[in-house]
Amino acid sequence: MTAGVPAGSHVPLVALRSGAGVAVIAATVLASLIGFVDASVVNVAIPEIGRSLHASVSALQWTLTSYLLAVAVLLLLSGALADHFGRRQVLAAGLVVMLAGSIGCAAAPSVGVLIAARVLQGVGAALVVPSSLSLLNGTLEQADRSRGIGIWAGLATLGTTLGPYVGGWLTDHISWRALFLLNPPLALAGLAVLWFVPQTDIARRPLSLDAPGALLAAAGLGGVIYALTAGPASGWLSAPVLVAGAIGIVGLVALVLVERRQSAPMLRLSLFGSRQFDAINVVTLLLYGAIYAASYLVILQFELRLGYSAAQAGAALIPESAVFLAVSPVSGFLVARIGPRWMMVAGILALAAGFVWLSAAHPGEPYAVAILPGVLLWGLGTGICVTPLTSAVLAAVGDVDLGEAAAVNDAASRVGGVVVVALVPALIGATGGLGIARALVHGYRPAMIVLAVLCVVAALVAGLFVSNRRVAAPGLAPSPRLHSCAVPVPRAVQDQDSPVSEGA
C-alpha cells in the first residue's frame, strides 16, 4: 500500500517525470543490481571461499548452482504470487528475503551454511526478477514505459559494468564476505523508495499455486544437478550419484505428466506447440549454459593460472560490457528490418569465436593479444544476438501469452546455466581429488572449445528452425544481463591446502 492511499482506492498510472516515477525507476534498478551481485559477482570470490572455508570442489560448485537452481525452480511460480498479492508487495518480500540471505552469506561459518544462505538468496531473486520489470511496466503511463525501461536498463547495466571491478577490489583488499555486504544497503534503499511507489494493480487474481509442479521441478532439477556436481569427485557409478540422477530423471518426467493434468499449471505445456518457441528456448538453453560456464572458467583461468588480481581482472573484462552497450541499440534497429534468424546465428558464432580465442590464454602472454580480442568478440556476439532472440521468442506466441513466454525463456537460460556450470569440473578433468587449478593446466582449453561447440550447435538450431520473418523490435532496451559475462577474477590462490590450489 502506498503511504497515504486508503485500501481499495484507485491509483492512476504515474508519469516518469514525477516523484513516484523516479521511485519506480530507483526501486527496480536497485533490485536488479542486487540480482546481478548474487548471480555473477559471487564468482569473483570462489577461490577465496575455497581457501577460507576449506571447501571441496563440489561444495564450491554448489555455491554457484544452488542460487541458480532456486531461481530456476521458483521463477514461474512467483508470477502467480505477484498476480495475487501485488507486484509491489512481492518485490518488497523478495528484497527482504535477499537481504536475509546476503547477511547469512556474509556471516557463514561453513560452506554448508553458505550454500543454504545462497538458496535463500535464490528464493528472493525468484520473487524479485519477474516482479521488478512488471512493476515498472504496470506503474508508468503507457507513453513513458519504453523510455522508463530504457533508463532502467541503462542504469542497471552500468552497475553490471562497474560491479566486477568493485567486487574484485573488495576481494583483493577486504574479504570475500564484503561482496555480500554490498547487498544490504541496496536492499534497504530499495525498500525505502518502494514506500513512494503507488499500488496500481488493485484488481487481484485468485491465488493459484502449482505446488506439485514446483516440488517435482525442484526434485528433478536438484537430483540431476547433484549427480552432475558429485559425479566427477565421487565417481559416476557411485550409489549417491546414481540415486540422485534417477530421482532427477523420474522427477522431470513426472513433472511433464503432472503439468498436463493441472488446471493452472506452473508450466503451460501448450506454449511448446510452436516450433519457433521450442527452437528459441533450445537456443537459449545452450547459449546461456555456455555463457555461464565460460564466465566461471575464465575467472578460474585468469585467477589461478594467469595470476590476475580480482580488480585487474574486473577492469580487463569491462570492454565486453562496453561493446555490448554499443552494439545492442544497432541490433534492435536491424532486427525489425532483416528478421531475427541470421542475426542470432551471426551473434552466437561471434561468441563462439570469442570463446575459442580466450581458450588460448596462457601465462606470459600480453593482455592485448591473448585476452582483449576474445573479450571484444564476446561483447559483439551477445550484443548482436540478445535482442533478436528476445524479439523472436515474444513473436512466437500471442499477446496474451507474452508474460509467460518471457518467464519460460528466462527459466530456460537459468536451467542451462545451472546444468553446464555443474559440468565444469568434468569438462576440465577435475576428478579423483585433482584440484581445479591443476586440472586447468590441461583442461581449460578443451573445456572452452566444448563451450564454443555448444554455441555452434545453438547457432545451427537457430539457422534451421527459427523463422526469419520480420518481427517488431521490442519497445525496450536490452535488459541488464544479470548473468553478465563480464565478471572479474579473484587473485591467485597460494594456499596449498585449498581444493582450488595447485596442490589440491
Number of helices: 19
Number of strands: 0
Approximate helicity band:
over 70%
What is the annotated CATH architecture of the largest domain?
Answer: Up-down Bundle
CATH homologous superfamily label of the largest domain: MFS general substrate transporter like domains
Profile the largest sheet.
none
Provide the low-confidence segments as ranges: 1-9, 470-504
Average per-residue pLDDT, rounded, comes to: 79
The number of domains: 2
Distance between the termini: 54 Å
- The level 1 CATH classification of the largest domain is Mainly Alpha
Shape: globular
Work out the radius of gyration: 22 Å
Describe this structure in words.
With 504 residues, the protein is mainly alpha-helical. The protein contains 19 helices and no strands. Helix 3 runs parallel beside helix 5. The protein starts with 18 loop residues before the first helix and ends in a 39-residue tail after the last helix.
Q: Summarize this, please?
A:
This protein is an all-alpha fold and 504 residues long.
Keywords:
single chain, 504 residues, mainly alpha, Growth Hormone, Chain: A, 2 domains, 72% helix, globular, disordered C terminus
Topology of this structure?
Blueprint: H1 19-39, H2 46-53, H3 57-85, H4 87-107, H5 111-139, H6 145-173, H7 177-180, H8 183-194, H9 211-234, H10 239-261, H11 275-305, H12 310-316, H13 318-338, H14 341-358, H15 367-370, H16 372-395, H17 402-422, H18 424-428, H19 436-465
